[in-house]
Amino acid sequence: MQLSDSVATVSGIGDKSADKLARLKIFTVRDLLFHLPKRYNDFSQTISLYEFDAHLDEEVTTRATVISKAFLRARTGRNLTAVTVFDGKVRKTFMFFGPPYITADLKKNQSYYFYGKLTAYRNQVSITNPSFSPIEEQASKFSTIYHLTAGLTNKFFSKNIQKILNSDINFSKLDFIKNYLDDKTLDLFQSLEIIHNPEDLTLVEIAKKRLAIDEVVLVRLANSLRRKKWQKKLQTNKYKTFPVTNILKNLDLTLTNDQLQTLEDIVVDFKKSEPANRIIQGDVGSGKTIVAGVAGAVTANNNLQTIILAPTEILANQHLSSLQKFFPSLDIGIFTGSKKIWGKDITIGTHALLEKKALEHFKKNKVGLVIVDEQHRFGVNQRSKIFGLGARKNVYPHFLSLTATPIPRTIALTIYGDVDLSQIKSFPKGHRKVSSHILTSSQKPKAYKFIQGELKKGNSALFIAPIIEESETTMGEIESVKKLFLEVDKYFHSQKVFLLHGRLKSSEKDQILSDFANNPGSILVSTPVVEVGIDIPDLSILVISSSERFGLSQLHQLRGRIGRRGQEAYCFLFHSKDKTDSQRLKHFVSEHDGGKLALLDLKTRGAGETYGYLQHGKGNFKIADLSSIEEIKKASNIADKILLTDPELTNPYIKEYLQSFATPDPID
Model confidence over 587-607: pLDDT tens digits? Predict the structure, then answer.
């Protein structure tokens, strides 16, 4: 058995089980082996059913016998199962929401451990959808709880993962990373054994740290291979002239040193025989669009076309207006759902550029450069099409990705190790810092009165409803923003108030944003869907409700949307009186460096909150904690040492481990 083999090669896993595993993105032996428990139940610490009231809102474990099961249907139409249990003194009913299969393993008159969070409902304290395990089967004091899907149980995962651990896989040979670690460090097999069969949760954390090192090393190695393949396999159109100096002379702008350095990086890329693959990261307002325009002008001087892809129609129109103003000699077109005008030099558009007719058009023309604004805002299938925009056989255009997401360099090089990175940290002349203020609800009337005065001057305002946690419904988010809309509309009844949220169609969102932009002195009430794609010069006021529920990086990007023409701008953060959140928000008020705020976000909220969506398709970190900068550096150094001794990664065990880990490559 090899890690890269199909999961169906594990004895006892048939086609039906393999299909179910595919829903969890488990396709190979490695995928199953590294499907780590999401948590553990500790059966050495149990409480009685009588003690439930004293432990409200806590995670607890209890022992009880199943007396009865009743299948019901809630008023909302949802299926639920009421399971009544008895521990010898007290009876309780546990409610399981979902299809009947989730309680199929609960047998009448059998005793189980039940684990979950105690909540109150109709004066009864109980557990909803508890995890459970038969007492007679529980030899260890811990049980592993995995992410499940319909038809698969925790028992299924434990049993089949153990088969892999007991198989003929040569873990010691695959563990090439152990050679670069301290002798006291757990080896690969020990780490997996401890995580799937825990006896001590302290050891589990040590084992996870070991696997996290593997994960980062493998991401770096996979990215290195992808980069080498990119360099060997792909060619690009030749650039013969690089008139950056002349282009800059005609600009009515003075570029910052960071912008000039980024342009220098791009010119170096253009001189190479393989296509560039570069990320340009800079705060909102740092001047990424101008840099992109200069790169497009250089491309036009080489008789090649540029494609600029934006996530929304209004942003595409804003790019068009900006580039036409600064580069009047270029023929610039726009291709969106409502407008389809090809540009001879530059075509700016939305996802409409990824439609079949557009793709065919670009294949007939020489495309030298593709620029994507906030690439992660496009879907997975769209991103694979973006990669092939303007490609003809093995001749690919240069590729630039623009992002305002603040990324500490160490993390960027880990997530995006197969690309080059340019960072624009400084701002053009005339940029003003936004005046930010933390307020409580009691200060709302005074703040609203001030905002009213600004609106009368023709300045516009943006009100953001709180982020809704994943556990809450999308409809909850809609109710939240609608409630805020009614409040704002009632108070500012003499102004136009627009409503925007994620459930609207793209065309509806674009229309609302366009109407808002064309009505100075108006108000937009929105969910954070506007974080990307809004550039309205008159926007001077930002009001964020329940600001403690936002990450600092997201608050920073939202704040960057106001005061774009250098006018006075104000950000009002309404929050609860929680001291921890208040301290965090105070850092935001005083700090305007996106990178520093991102690092603080990592420390206080973790990498999942900050960069979860950026990781998609870049190794999909499941174990590594990107907030542990030192651990990331340690793993990156190991990867560099491996590449130094084996640059082509010819070691067969490295190849097998890597092949089982790496994501599919779009250039294959």
Answer: 888 888 777 787 777 666 655
Instruction: Give the best-scoring range by mean pLDDT among 90-99, 118-127, 293-302.
Output: 293-302
CA 115 → CA 112, 174, 662, distances in Å?
10, 36, 36
Quote the DSSP letter at residue 178. Answer: G
Both tokens assigned to 36? 């780590």
3-state secondary structure of 229: helix
Q: How many residues does the chain have?
A: 668
User: SS3 string of 185-199?
Assistant: CCCHHHHHHHHHCCC
Q: Does residue 471 surpass a pLDDT of 50?
A: no
Higher pLDDT, 560 or 565: 560
Diameter of the chain measured on Cα atoms: 87
- Coil, strand or helix at 594: helix
Helix axes 288-301 and 257-270, enclosed angle (nearest 10): 30
Helix (H) or strand (E) holding 621: none
Q: Is 326 helix (H, G, I), strand (E, B) or coil?
A: helix
Rounded Cα distance between 608 and 504, Å, is 26
* 176 vs 187: CA distance, rounded Å: 10
Q: What pLDDT, in 10s, does the model give residues 230-251?
A: 777 778 889 999 999 999 998 8
The DSSP result for 344-402, as a single string, is SSEEEESGGGGSHHHHHHHHTS-EEEEEEESGGGS-HHHHHHHHTTT-BTTB--EEEEE
Give the residue from 284, 568, 264, 588 showing the smallest Cα distance to 420: 264
- Which residue matches tokens 């990307």? 532
DSSP three-state, residue 555 = helix
Half-sphere exposure for 540 (CA within 13 Å, toward CB): 20
CA dihedral 526, 527, 531, 537 (to 10 degrees): 10
For every residue of 28-90, DSSP letters joined together read: BHHHHHT---SEEEETTS---GGGGGGGTTSEEEEEEEEEEEEEEE-TTS-EEEEEEEE-SS-
- C-beta of residue 368 within 8 angstroms of C-beta of residue 395: no
Q: How many angstroms separate the CA atoms of 629 and 480, rounded? A: 36
* Residue 131 identity (one-letter amino acid): S
Residue 256 makes CB contacts below 8 A (sequence gap 6+) with 286, 287, 424, 426, 427, 428
Partner residues linked to 144 by β-bridges: 40
Beta bridge partners of 97: 80
- The pLDDT value recorded for residue 609 is 47
